[in-house]
């Protein structure tokens, strides 16, 4: 009996339905810190770009790489880390991600030039990718099945709060210290999360297939070039360059699909996309995060240029969206334990689309209250979507493919956010006077498409 138990432990397998309550709380603390840091560092770098460019003697155009390299590193490595998590265990990948993210944050703080900072940010993005790539799969092992929605709601709350407080946090730190402290503050938090993760994160069942490094390279090339092409295309860069990047992405995608053909657990999980519920949930996520990005990038310009608000006022006017997301995410998570995610998400996204339309229809002399209740409607709608959609993606994949499903969750988010930001740039290029309004209108359209995709899930069968 003891020999069998030992063998099971060595294989990293747990058959229990979630962790006991006291262990679960500490595991969630560790996961939340990692997810919070990875999400926060996406937001704070945007706010601090001017200060970093000035101190590093970099041009504004060159300094954008501080943000871009982080996103590229994440989107290129998310699915490889998710696949590796299925083989080595999600716990190991999360711990590795925390360690690398923390070390890279320290390197960012000590960077002495733009190239050194960009290199450090690349490794920070890889660490964040390892954390985010297995995050949702870990939640599936931490929470009992009956409480999974609650756990996903808590996770959505952490992401929402990190995204909301990012600009404010960056401004507060820069008002007291210089930009290196934006990264240095991650070090004590990261070390705490790392040592806590080693102690409390659960071991999970491991897959028996091997990791294919060449497939990972093809995946990185495909998604990396795709994101580059989207960004440069939106800025109307040289057409030949964009065409070459798209062609390169296509070649890598073809090589990737050919390489993984017949594999029991493909890195790009085409087998999971054959499940209608999984595909519709991923599509819902991409469209909704595109809406969020279209709104959050364009609204500061809309408030200041169209409505004549100050930069300080703009920060407060965006807050109701984030606050309501934080309030609604746990509620929606608990509801998703009892009601179909397609219904909850469809209702929430219809509300989000209506909220976006109400922002477009505001008059130039609208009151602060008039802006805030419209932003609150958007936040309610977005918050009502996130946790149920996460549950739908994870529950539509078999347990042994939890890593791949978790990777798709993070990849869908990044693809949506990158596409939304690129579309804002495109809107400003085609119309300097009405770019903000066009971006918000596109956001309303994307939310409506996401709502339709979500409601369609009510008519597809849940996989066994």
TrEMBL record:
<protein>
    <submittedName>
        <fullName>MFS transporter</fullName>
    </submittedName>
</protein>
<feature type="transmembrane region" description="Helical">
    <location>
        <begin position="65"/>
        <end position="84"/>
    </location>
</feature>
<dbReference type="InterPro" id="IPR011701">
    <property type="entry name" value="MFS"/>
</dbReference>
<dbReference type="InterPro" id="IPR020846">
    <property type="entry name" value="MFS_dom"/>
</dbReference>
<keyword id="KW-0472">Membrane</keyword>
<feature type="transmembrane region" description="Helical">
    <location>
        <begin position="151"/>
        <end position="173"/>
    </location>
</feature>
<feature type="transmembrane region" description="Helical">
    <location>
        <begin position="368"/>
        <end position="387"/>
    </location>
</feature>
<feature type="domain" description="Major facilitator superfamily (MFS) profile">
    <location>
        <begin position="27"/>
        <end position="464"/>
    </location>
</feature>
<feature type="transmembrane region" description="Helical">
    <location>
        <begin position="241"/>
        <end position="257"/>
    </location>
</feature>
<feature type="transmembrane region" description="Helical">
    <location>
        <begin position="118"/>
        <end position="139"/>
    </location>
</feature>
<feature type="transmembrane region" description="Helical">
    <location>
        <begin position="437"/>
        <end position="460"/>
    </location>
</feature>
<dbReference type="InterPro" id="IPR036259">
    <property type="entry name" value="MFS_trans_sf"/>
</dbReference>
<feature type="region of interest" description="Disordered">
    <location>
        <begin position="1"/>
        <end position="20"/>
    </location>
</feature>
<keyword id="KW-1133">Transmembrane helix</keyword>
<feature type="transmembrane region" description="Helical">
    <location>
        <begin position="217"/>
        <end position="235"/>
    </location>
</feature>
<feature type="compositionally biased region" description="Polar residues">
    <location>
        <begin position="1"/>
        <end position="14"/>
    </location>
</feature>
<feature type="transmembrane region" description="Helical">
    <location>
        <begin position="342"/>
        <end position="362"/>
    </location>
</feature>
<keyword id="KW-0812">Transmembrane</keyword>
<feature type="transmembrane region" description="Helical">
    <location>
        <begin position="179"/>
        <end position="197"/>
    </location>
</feature>
<feature type="transmembrane region" description="Helical">
    <location>
        <begin position="315"/>
        <end position="335"/>
    </location>
</feature>
<feature type="transmembrane region" description="Helical">
    <location>
        <begin position="93"/>
        <end position="112"/>
    </location>
</feature>
<feature type="transmembrane region" description="Helical">
    <location>
        <begin position="26"/>
        <end position="45"/>
    </location>
</feature>
<dbReference type="Pfam" id="PF07690">
    <property type="entry name" value="MFS_1"/>
</dbReference>
<feature type="transmembrane region" description="Helical">
    <location>
        <begin position="277"/>
        <end position="303"/>
    </location>
</feature>
<keyword id="KW-0813">Transport</keyword>
<feature type="transmembrane region" description="Helical">
    <location>
        <begin position="408"/>
        <end position="431"/>
    </location>
</feature>
């Amino acid at each position: 009996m003891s020999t069998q138990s030992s063998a099971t432990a060595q294989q990293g397998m747990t058959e229990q339905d979630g962790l006991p309550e006291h262990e679960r709380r500490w595991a969630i603390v560790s996961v939340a810190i990692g997810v919070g840091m990875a999400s926060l560092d996406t937001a704070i770098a945007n706010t601090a770009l001017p200060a970093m460019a000035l101190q590093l003697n970099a041009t504004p155009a060159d300094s954008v790489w501080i943000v871009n390299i982080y996103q590229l590193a994440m989107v290129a490595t998310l699915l490889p880390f998710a696949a590796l998590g299925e083989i080595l265990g999600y716990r190991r990948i999360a711990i590795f991600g925390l360690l690398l993210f923390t070390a890279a944050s320290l390197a960012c703080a000590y960077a002495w030039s733009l190239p050194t900072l960009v290199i450090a940010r690349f490794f920070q993005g890889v660490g964040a990718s390892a954390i985010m790539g297995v995050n949702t799969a870990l939640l599936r092992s931490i929470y009992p099945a009956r409480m999974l929605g609650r756990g996903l709601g808590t996770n959505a709350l952490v992401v929402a709060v990190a995204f909301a407080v990012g600009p404010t946090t960056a401004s507060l730190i820069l008002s007291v210290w210089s930009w290196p402290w934006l990264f240095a503050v991650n070090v004590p938090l990261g070390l705490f999360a790392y040592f806590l993760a080693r102690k409390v994160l659960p071991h999970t069942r491991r897959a028996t297939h091997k990791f294919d490094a060449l497939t990972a390279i093809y995946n990185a090339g495909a998604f990396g070039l795709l994101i580059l092409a989207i960004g440069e295309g939106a800025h109307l860069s040289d057409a030949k360059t964009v065409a070459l990047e798209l062609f390169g992405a296509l070649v890598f995608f073809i090589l990737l699909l050919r390489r993984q053909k017949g594999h029991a657990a493909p890195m790009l999980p085409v087998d999971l996309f054959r499940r209608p519920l999984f595909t519709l949930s991923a599509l819902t996520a991409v469209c909704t995060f595109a809406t969020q990005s279209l709104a959050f990038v364009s609204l500061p310009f809309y408030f200041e240029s169209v409505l004549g608000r100050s930069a300080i006022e703009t920060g407060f006017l965006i807050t109701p969206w984030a606050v309501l997301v934080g309030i609604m995410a746990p509620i929606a998570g608990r509801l998703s334990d009892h009601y179909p995610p397609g219904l909850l998400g469809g209702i929430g996204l219809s509300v989000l689309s209506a909220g976006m339309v109400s922002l477009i229809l505001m008059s130039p002399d609208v009151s602060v209250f008039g802006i805030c209740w419209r932003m609150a409607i958007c936040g309610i709608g977005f918050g009502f979507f996130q946790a149920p959609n996460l549950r739908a993606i994870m529950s539509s994949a078999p347990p042994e493919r939890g890593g791949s499903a978790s990777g798709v969750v993070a990849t869908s988010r990044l693809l949506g956010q990158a596409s939304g930001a690129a579309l804002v740039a495109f809107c400003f290029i085609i119309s300097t006077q009405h770019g903000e309004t066009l971006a918000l209108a596109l956001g309303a359209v994307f939310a409506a498409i996401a709502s339709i995709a979500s409601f369609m899930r009510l008519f597809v069968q849940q996989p066994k």
